[in-house]
Amino acid sequence: MVILADAKQNIQNEKIKEEDEEEEVKTWEELGLDPRLISALNKNGIDKPTPIQISGIPLILEGKDVVARAKTGSGKTYAYLLPLLQKLFSDTGASKKTAPSAMILVPTRELCQQACSYYISLCGYEVLSLIAACKVQLKVVQVTSSMVGKDLRAALAGPPDILVSTPACISTCLQSDALKTNSIQESLQLLVLDEADLLLSYGYEDDLKALTPHIPRRCQCLLMSATSSADVEKLKKLVLHSPVILTLSEVGDVKDEMIPKNVQQFWISCSTRDKQLYMLSLLKLELVQKKILIFVNTIDMGFRLKLFLEQFGIKTAVLNAELPQNSRLHILEEFNAGLFDYLIATDDSQMKEKEKANDDAQVTSKKSKRHPKPKLDSEFGVVRGIDFKNVYTVINFEMPLNAAGYVHRIGRTGRAYNTGASVSLVSEDEMEVFEEIKATLGEEEDDSKGSSNFIAPFPLLTKNAVESLRYRAEDVAKSVTKIAVRESRAQDLRNEILNSEKLKAHFESNPRDLGTEFYTSRRSIVTESLNLYFSFYLAEISVYCIFVLLIVGMFAKSSDLLKHDKELSRKPAPAHLRAVPEYLQDPTTQEASKIVKMARAAMGKTPSKRRPASKGKSRKSKDPLKAHSAEGAKRFGKRKGKEMGGDKKKKRTKADE
Ligand SMILES: Nc1ncnc2c1ncn2[C@@H]1O[C@H](COP(=O)(O)OP(=O)(O)OP(=O)(O)O)[C@@H](O)[C@H]1O
């Protein structure tokens, strides 16, 4: 049993991993990974481990408690999931379990879904040979707080081998006895706290404190995080025993680089009023590459921006906490699949504070009692940890509240071997937080050091180009009234609820509640309709494949119903606003735009996993943001485009305390 006092004692004894020399071990084999897992990884096109995987996997396989801190997109999920699976493969299953062998706790439902899909994508390939070779039958279940008692009990019956959930849901399961405390003590071998820097800020402290007394002393605990914070320290003391601390940084850095090297950061200074104008200029003049993820701080701002852009023929979807969960996951899936290019996301961490203030105000307002606001999902979260696929550009239309928020937002691009860019629109009011962000990143003005922490002024947009669009932008902005925003938000919600209903209709023969996360992706819908709860057994796989084909067919027909970037404006977009006429175009920006298009076309040939350039040269020459400056004054980014896990990259791990 782990109690707080023990944890405090242990923390003094914790071991620290120091690896200043270049890491020798580079292949999956050398990390001691099971050949069947290696083969599954290779089939997924993942042939080399990343630095955090190189350092973390052997330690986890040895049975050590590990605290791992590494940049966003650095591959932390596989760093814990692969050794976890390997341990469960070799678990002979001689003893009869009464609770899950492993628990993965994450802050949001979206991350529950993601952790399960990582498992599926990994095991989907290899499950047949795994079963054939070693009779592995791993059952993975995700449960969240929205599930009612009987569903929770059904999901936990068995019991599953791996349980993916939020701390709040585990707490509910403990209270309702769906999870028995003595069973946890008997069965739990591995506990993972993923996105640990967020767990406490999402208000899960009490839930975790309710769980820790029941974690057996022998249970191996892993804590994964992108940033270090007081919250991570607190969790470490609460849950881990003598952990090894891994902090990944790169050789030669004066300070840890928090932003991946393959992401270029830019900023534009503009007034709050001009933000829509600048946004229009970036998108309409095609100065940023798709796919594009745009962050705003409130749902209303998301819809305001959507309506504004719509008038210029730019279609977007708005991902936010008030949408039904089915829709949210479907939006993520469609965006990841490349079905639309522009996604506006409300940053949940900013939302929580603002909406809470609004909700408090509602209590006293009679008017708002008559029109209560839709309930926001407290387990919603897309900014942190979600693996958006192939997002090239992240735009901060509104700045986050702090530097940690910035790091997580920018981390949605430049994931794995991809390159990316970010553009922050910074108003006078946001200068303070912008300065704080720069200070936290340890921005290095000296370009020659190639620091990825440097945020450069955006080089491709001239004043003339912006001013030429001002009249049109201001005219349209005026037409997007508060009422229009409110109506479009309500309309979108109605559409999405209807979508959810239509999804339900497809599966009405299914006895289970379609509101749960099992129905939220094509793959999971199929899984649930077979009542598998992510169990993979030989006989079921073939049926699974047939169902996938059927469901894909059904979705193809209903694809229009399920479109998330539908126009919401009452007035259709006027034809004359769709294109920028020749006389409004600024030649310098036009030139920049051409280069961006050329670069995109070149990159389009290698859409998903771009391998690191062997010498870094060719990518740089293709990169318009490095090669071109609209103002002609400065060249940015002498970085060599080193990429995560690239051959040339040196790394070290060091103590973080
Ligand atoms: N060894 C590898 N080679 C290539 N791609 C990888 C490798 N490991 C992971 N990836 C891919 O990198 C992407 C990012 O991985 P992951 O989501 O684990 O990052 P993360 O460190 O958890 O990021 P965050 O802190 O934002 O949650 C995923 O698409 C994953 O499939």
UniProtKB/TrEMBL annotation:
Residues 26-54 form the DEAD-box RNA helicase Q domain. SUPFAM superfamilies: P-loop containing nucleoside triphosphate hydrolases. It comes from Papaver somniferum (Opium poppy). The lineage of its organism: Eukaryota, Viridiplantae, Streptophyta, Embryophyta, Tracheophyta. Keywords: ATP-binding, Coiled coil, Helicase, Hydrolase, Membrane, Nucleotide-binding, RNA-binding, Transmembrane, Transmembrane helix. Gene3D superfamilies: P-loop containing nucleotide triphosphate hydrolases. Belongs to the DEAD box helicase family. DDX56/DBP9 subfamily. InterPro entries: DEAD/DEAH_box_helicase_dom (IPR011545), DEAD_box_RNA_helicase (IPR050079), Helicase_ATP-bd (IPR014001), Helicase_C-like (IPR001650), P-loop_NTPase (IPR027417), RNA_helicase_DEAD_Q_motif (IPR014014). This is RNA helicase.
